[in-house]
Amino acid sequence: MRDYDLLVVGELNADLILKGNVEPEFGQVEKLVDDFAVTPGGSSSIFAAAAAKMGLKVLYASRVGDDIFGHFMIDAMQAIGIDTRYVTVDPDIKTGATVILSRGQDRAMLTYLGSLGVISRRDVDPAWFQQVRHLHVASPFLLTSLRPDMPALMREARAGGMTTSLDTNWDPEERWQLDGFFDHLDVFLPNEGELIAIAGTNDLETALAALAPRVPMLAVKRGGEGATGVQGGRRVDVPAYPVQVKDTTGAGDTFDGGFLAAWLAGRPLEDCLRFGAACGGLTTTIIGGFNGQPSWAEAEAYIRAHA
To answer: Which CATH number goes with the domain that contains 281?
Structure first.
């Protein structure tokens, strides 16, 4: 028995989400949006929130500024039971933030890295690898100071008896360099676009054939098309659940939380994909990444209702 189910070393940043069917235009052109919300954000933290709501005990390490967004993020994480004792408040930096224009099932995002760029190996205690069951690695292309050490952290976690997972999220530079990231990986959780870009192909089938053999478990998020999983050469496809989409912020990260909660509970691939799809779908019904995330019982009931 270990003290925690999940260790995440990742970003904490606030999201300003704007809703509307508009496109920004320079030249001091003012356009109106339909709604807005300031919500807890960051792929790693949204994932951690989803996992915690599914019943996992989560240990979170990060670094934020001594500012309104930094304290806002710590409070939001603590409110759902995530252990934030190892989140450092650093007065010399600003907490990162993202402005999101959400339109239907698509989004445009502008991110100020701030604290995201200074989270590093110094924020990781090696003793944790004996205290936690699973390490989730996310956003290597944003966590620029931590990224060079991520493969070593995964190796050390494995050596300490942990399992590991990876969600790269999008690479703003579109270089997709992931040397060493697959060497000590148990579960890979890209979306379809990321999978195709990482494989350097033009279609899903070729990308699956290229990357599925590199990892024991591959789960691909496909938005309205559902999800595809490959384990031991066996492929499973599940459809998306019917939801009225209001905002897709954090849907993929919430999918990860549902999928891994089921995987750590020993469920088969089909169940893991269904829990991921249910969690990811339900969070789109409310604006904000932390909102709409279900508990295990709520996800399970939703899956039964749509069997």
So the answer is: 3.40.1190.20
Q: Quick check: 287 pLDDT over 90? A: no
Residue 153 lies in a domain: yes
Query: Strands 83-90, 97-103: parallel, antiparallel or unpaired by DSSP?
Result: unpaired
Neighbours of 104 (CB within 10 A): 11
Q: Specify the number of domains making up the chain.
A: 1
The average pLDDT across 301-306 equals 96
Q: Is residue 30 part of a domain?
A: no
Residue 183: other Cβ atoms inside 10 A: 11
Per-residue pLDDT tens for 246-266?
Answer: 888 899 999 999 999 999 999
Q: Are 208 and 195 in contact (CB under 8 A)?
A: yes
Helix (H/G/I), strand (E/B), else coil: 218? strand
Contact status, residue 69 vs residue 97, Cβ threshold 8 Å:
yes
Query: Phi and psi at residue 189, in whole multiples of 5°?
Result: -130, 60
C-alpha–C-alpha distance, residues 238 and 248, integer Å? 19
Strand 234-238 with 227-231, pairing: antiparallel
Give the percent of the chain with pLDDT over 90: 94
Q: Between β-strands 227-231 and 35-41, what pairing exists: parallel, antiparallel or unpaired?
A: unpaired
Query: Cα–chain-centroid distance for residue 263?
Result: 16
Confidence of residue 1 (pLDDT cuts 50, 70, 90): confident
At 237, is the secondary structure helix, strand, or coil? strand
Q: Domain range holding 248?
A: 4-12+42-96+117-305
- Residue 37 in any domain: the answer is no
Residue 22 within any structural domain of the chain? no
CB atoms within 10 A of CB 111: 18
At which residue do the structure tokens 């989409």 appear?
A: 245
Checking if the pLDDT of 104 tops 80, the result is no
